[in-house]
From TrEMBL:
GO terms for molecular function: monoacylglycerol lipase activity; phosphatidylcholine lysophospholipase activity. Residues 9-209 form the DUF676 domain. Signal peptide: none annotated. SUPFAM superfamilies: alpha/beta-Hydrolases (SSF53474). Belongs to the putative lipase ROG1 family. Keywords: Lipid degradation, Lipid metabolism, Membrane, Transmembrane, Transmembrane helix. InterPro entries: AB_hydrolase_fold, DUF676_lipase-like, Lipase-like. The chain crosses the membrane at residues 268-292. This is DUF676 domain-containing protein. PANTHER family: ESTERASE, PUTATIVE (AFU_ORTHOLOGUE AFUA_3G12320)-RELATED (PTHR12482:SF65), LIPASE ROG1-RELATED-RELATED (PTHR12482). GO terms for biological process: lipid catabolic process. It comes from Hymenoscyphus fraxineus.
Length: 441
């Protein structure tokens, strides 16, 4: 347990923080301290069983490790005379997917029958995977090369895996409404996500916001309104903004927009060319070494020689009503459709206004209506599977917050102030909003 975390006799609420790819507990220190400052009685567990290269081993194994940590912590607190009655899960980046898996296991094992699930929060988590949604050589390169350098977790993130005996990608199972994972996620009192609208090259907007569009592609053309009291970092959910038609812009404005787009793409081309002689070799060597270590760990794990009794976490993934027919045409149809990446050039409506969207219940809680991001704009070239995942996940109802990080070029790290540095100060604003406005203590 990290020394900044204290336990008091009032402790009944356990909050678990889960880091992302290649990360560790140190990434979540500012987050943990922000929570502790708000409520010293909150018991915080910063997960450590997936530290560093252990994140290569797969979302499923990562989720099982986290589940074991949670059960052990509940047991330790019970021995100290402290009963856990509430549980919250918080995932950063890949940690959000691991948290979703762990939630399903906890549900399947009956933990939620005696402990109330309260908050489920993800920060910039790739809920729809990480495949590039646009067509082109750089996207094809990323979809093919990226999946094979991130090992088991990479196959799952790019949805080219066949998860256990389901013969379907893990992320599809995580979003199946009849799976323990969706049933577990549904139990939480509040589901919240934070997504970057710019400068997040690790997990782009569409996947972290569970959206089929990206209305923030041409950010310079938008008139954004921000939530008062949070330093122009978080968009105000009660206002809408207009994205002007390109055709209505003057020739000079269109020219400037195209130049800016070209300049945004230029670094990728330059970096890729410079990266070929050294970077590719280094990445392949590191990936090869990590693969050997990861496969050895997984083999020991599956044989019961690891730190977790794997079989104790192999709960039925699909509920009885959905098992029949689950192995039939679904996966084949999706697999055959993967090569057709449609990019629609029309929007869902004739209006260009982009708005935010909550369920009617959430609207009432927020004190007003919100127009929804994703309701307008061009539909991205996602796969049919991803469109289904969007529909099913959004059906649960999420409180979505859109973050505009400007001081740091790497907004993925800045959004939670992953390290203490001036460029990441906006992340502290995000965390302050979370504990003041979202987190149910």
């Amino acid at each position: 347990m990290d020394p900044i975390i204290q336990t008091t006799q009032d402790t009944h609420h356990l909050c678990v923080l889960i880091h992302g790819f290649w990360g560790g507990p140190k990434d979540l220190q500012v987050m943990a301290q922000t929570l502790q400052n708000k409520d010293p009685s909150l018991h915080i567990l910063i997960a450590k069983s997936n530290n560093g290269n252990f994140t290569y081993d797969g979302i499923d194994i990562g989720g099982e490790r986290i589940c074991k940590e949670i059960e052990e912590e509940i047991g330790n607190l019970a021995r100290d005379g402290l009963e856990v009655t509430k549980l919250s899960l918080v995932g950063y980046s890949l940690g959000g997917l691991i948290a979703r898996y762990a939630a399903g296991l906890l549900y399947g094992k009956g933990v939620f029958e005696r402990i109330e699930p309260v908050n489920f929060t993800t920060f910039v988590s790739p809920h729809l995977g990480v495949r590039a949604p646009l067509r082109g050589w750089q996207d094809t390169l990323w979809n093919v090369f990226g999946a094979r350098t991130l090992l088991t977790s990479g196959w799952q993130l790019f949805m080219i895996d066949k998860f256990r005996d389901t013969n379907r990608p893990l992320l599809e199972i995580l979003s199946d409404p009849n799976s323990v994972f969706m049933k577990g996620l549904e139990q939480f009192q509040r589901r919240t996500l934070y997504t970057n609208i710019a400068n997040d090259r690790s997990a782009v907007y569409y996947t972290t916001s569970i959206s089929s569009t990206d209305p923030f592609t041409n950010l310079d053309t938008l008139d954004l309104d921000y939530l008062p009291g949070y330093e122009d970092v978080i968009l105000d959910p009660k206002t809408s903004f207009e994205e002007p038609e390109l055709a209505t812009l003057s020739f000079s404005a269109r020219l400037v927009q195209r130049i800016k787009l070209g300049l945004r793409r230029a670094p990728f081309v330059v970096a890729f060319v410079a990266y070929i002689p050294i970077g590719i070799l280094e990445l392949v060597l590191n990936s090869t070494l990590s693969a050997i270590q990861s496969f050895r760990r997984i083999r020991r794990y599956e044989l019961g020689c690891g730190e977790v009794d794997a079989m104790s976490y192999r709960v039925p993934l699909l509920l009885p009503s959905s098992i029949q027919g689950a192995m039939e045409d679904v996966y084949q149809n999706v697999n055959n459709a993967q090569s057709h990446e449609y990019l629609f050039h029309s929007s869902f409506s004739n209006s260009n206004s982009t708005s935010f969207s909550y369920s009617s219940v959430e609207e009432e809680e927020m004190g007003g209506s919100m127009t929804g991001v994703g309701m307008g704009g061009k539909v991205l070239a996602l796969t049919p599977l991803q469109f289904r995942m969007i529909e099913e996940l959004n059906r649960l109802g999420w409180r979505k917050w859109y973050v505009h990080i400007r001081k740091a070029r790497h907004s993925h790290a800045a959004v939670i102030a992953r390290t203490e540095k001036p460029a990441f100060e906006e992340g502290k604003v995000v965390l302050r909003h979370w504990v003041e406005e979202e987190f149910v203590f």
